Amino acid sequence: MELYQGFDTFSGKTKNTAVQPKAEPPTIESEGKLAIYVATSMEELQDALSIEGSMKLSYSVFSVEAKSKYVHELNLTSNSVVVVIHASKSFTTERLDVEIPADILESMKTESGVDNFVKKYGDSWTSKIVKGGEFFVTFTFYAETKMEKDQIENSLTAGGVVGGVSVNTSLAVKISTMLQTSKVRYNISNKLLGYGNLEPPAKIDKDNPDQYVNDLIDFAASLLGRRADEPVMISYESTPYDELLPVEINFERVTTNRSSFLGNPAAPGWGEMLAHLSLSMSTSNSIKQRYKFYGNYQDSELETRLTKIKQDLDFLYKFIAAVDAKPNREHPFTTPTSVLYGAPSLRYSVVVPVGQNFLNGGGGGPYQDVTPENIPQHFHLNKVQISNGSIVDLIQLAYSAEYPAGECVTMHGSPGGSQHPPFFLGAGEYIVEIRGKLDSYWGHMTVAVLYMKTNKGNEYASSENAKSQSDQLWEAKPGDLLIGFSGSSGSNLDCIQPVVLRFSPAAWEEISLGIACETGKTHDQLAELVDDARIISETVLAHPRPATVANIPPDNSRVSLGQVNGQLHIYNIGNPGNGSTEFWISFQPPRKWIVAEIQAGHTQTYQPRGKEVLIENHGPSKLQALW
Hints:
Elements: E1 5-8, E2 13-17, E3 20-21, E4 27-29, E5 33-39, H1 42-48, H2 55-61, H3 66-73, E6 80-94, E7 98-99, H4 102-106, H5 111-121, E8 124-142, H6 146-158, H7 169-181, E9 185-193, H8 209-222, E10 232-240, H9 252-262, E11 263-264, E12 267-268, H10 270-293, H11 300-325, E13 343-352, E14 365-368, E15 380-388, E16 392-402, E17 405-413, E18 418-419, E19 423-424, E20 431-441, E21 444-454, E22 459-461, H12 466-469, E23 472-475, E24 480-489, E25 493-509, H13 523-527, E26 534-538, E27 549-552, E28 558-563, E29 568-572, E30 581-588, E31 593-598, E32 603-606, E33 612-617, E34 623-626
Antiparallel strand pairs: 1-2, 3-7, 4-6, 5-6, 6-8, 8-9, 8-10, 11-12, 13-25, 13-26, 14-24, 15-16, 15-18, 15-19, 16-17, 20-21, 20-23, 21-22, 24-25, 27-34, 28-33, 29-32, 29-34, 30-31, 30-33
């Protein structure tokens, strides 16, 4: 791509060059840049990788450029957190005054002439181009719930891995520590562009990430003063042709279709819908991976919605291709149903599904092998070993984890009696039945008999007759998955009780698209899942509540809300007046106004994305702004 080259917004492809400069543009070389960013959304990741302006949609949806491919291969979900190390050395060329030659303008005075122009030159032209070399490293943490995402962000902050800090050896140590202690799946990737004679450090040794992380950061720092020997395009901006066209050329339908693709803070465009559905599909597939590991939980609503998302993605791709083929035509559009779903989030609870007295002798100190924090680690009970005589003296348990990879061994009780051979549970094998009996031993009650059975029919017991001697029974209910044990122990096993994981259908949380979306179930609805069980912890979607409220009187005055992050809700209180109220709203920069109407009692939602918000209320009712 070169400066002034034509650009097709709908396909993200370059076209022939129609504009001519009136003077030779200057080229400005930048100093080398090395920075760290923590991205918690696709937009923040694009900012960190210098994917700018209107190009964000083309990158995230269509473009086959290196950065787009790189981002796609990360397979991000709506709850992913990405730490980015970005080094670049570049030079920028930006437009001066330009014009379209008279003969081309003359050919555009008919409808077919506009069609031919757009096919050949696109709907926009490249007004800024940045070339050079860059190297970026991404450490992607794949959370499945908002709670997991918050825990990752808090851990990064507590560990000193935050945007704006110096990129040096100290940071490498902090990132390595995060990787070694991460309790969610993570991925390390990197990309080098513009340096044909260099190679980034070799790929990671999974058993020792420290040196690899340090090598990556050292390599990034080494590029600061080094010019690219094979410069590539780092970023670019495009400008619509509209400002260069005389009034007699009717480019309006092309402009309308482009605006519909790009969208605005009040309404998402086709491109943003496509990007949103792609993220929802990736998030759904990631949740299914968690389901598959933990007993292959069946979430029928997720499957139904995922099918619809795929169908709507196919529709959007075909629709946008049709617009690209005929951009100078009207294209009636209905918002696909699945855009209103929002994004899915995993929901589960970790509970002890028995009463306090189940196999509980009342003595010893408490233990709990598994907590909700272990669930993202893909925790699995893979070995049980009992030692016993007249009572169960000791039970040893081994749990495997994938993130970070390793094994955790716990022992409850103390050595004594005869040690049984270990009982190994294979992949996908879980204990579904526990039987046992308490008996008096030296004046207090303790576990004397213990029997276990798995979903694959394998049995393990403290004695041959343990099953028949037992007088207490727990059987897993449908949907309950035993992931560990809690209880108490001292010199012997005083208490042992199952700890189970219970999934419930994924909750669908609104994504900031400016469209009314369904929300997840409430805490009260989630409580229906727990029966008489004791809840250890649960994941539940906390719907955000506005922290600031501003009253906007209907007096045509201009009110500034300042810079607003997150969602902005505009509510018509219906007093005075009880009908439709007109207001103007602007998100600056740029200085453009949206004229909107809102009925009494209705709310409209916008996504200012950190821009200054100005509002003029033209009445008749007072409005409230909440964010």
